[in-house]
Design goal:
Layout (H helix, E strand, L loop, with lengths): L1 H34 L4 H4 L6 H9 L12 H48 L6 E5 L2 E5 L1 H52 L1
Antiparallel strand pairs: 1-2
Length: 190
């Protein structure tokens, strides 16, 4: 009786174990089928391994006219270029804000300089240092204002140069994006 009980328990154990193994194998096959990496052959039947790498390197600069390049590839490239363009726009906005601040500071300092020129030679000039007004020589005050104006004008020239370069970069990006949009539309028609 005990032997028969052990034998029946053993058979039940094996049956349960087989069912568990069968379920695991089905689960693994499902995962493999849905999540495996696609080979070059599965992606595009006409390309295999190294041919796909060659195609990708040709189209790396977006100028390749390979008809095999998919709409998804163009969309990815277009999205990347649009992100670069948006970053350039943000930087241009920062440069414009910086230029505006410099213009305001130059204007303020020019007004101070004009006021200093109106003063008589023996007039007292004070400089605000923290919360305290400190006496300053009039010639020194004029020199300081002149240096500030000169420095800000130099910074404004640098800012203008960076803005000009950024404008050229943005124009090139616009042309590249327009070309990519056209290629994407052509790829979507196919």
């Amino acid at each position: 009786c005990i032997l028969q009980y052990l034998f029946n328990s053993y058979i039940i154990y094996i049956i349960v174990l087989n069912w568990i193994l069968w379920i695991l194998s089905v689960f693994i096959l499902v995962l493999f089928f849905f999540f495996k990496q696609k080979t070059a052959y599965e992606m595009l039947r006409s390309l295999v391994g190294s041919e796909m790498c060659i195609r990708d390197s040709i189209n790396a600069e977006y100028g390749g006219s390979n008809p095999a390049m998919s709409a998804a590839s163009f969309k990815t490239i277009l999205d990347r270029e649009l992100k670069v363009y948006q970053d350039a726009q943000k930087e241009m906005g920062t440069l414009q804000t910086q230029r505006q601040q410099l213009t305001e500071q130059i204007s303020e300092n020019a007004m101070v300089q004009a006021e200093l020129k109106l003063l008589e030679d023996d007039a007292e000039v004070f400089k605000l240092v923290g919360p305290v007004l400190v006496p300053q020589d009039q010639a020194e005050a004029n020199a300081n204002v002149e240096k500030r104006i000169s420095y800000m004008k130099t910074e404004m020239e640098k800012c203008d140069k960076r803005m000009e370069e950024k404008n050229k970069e943005m124009e090139e990006l616009q042309e590249k994006i327009a070309g990519l949009q056209q290629k994407l539309q052509e790829a979507m028609r196919k």
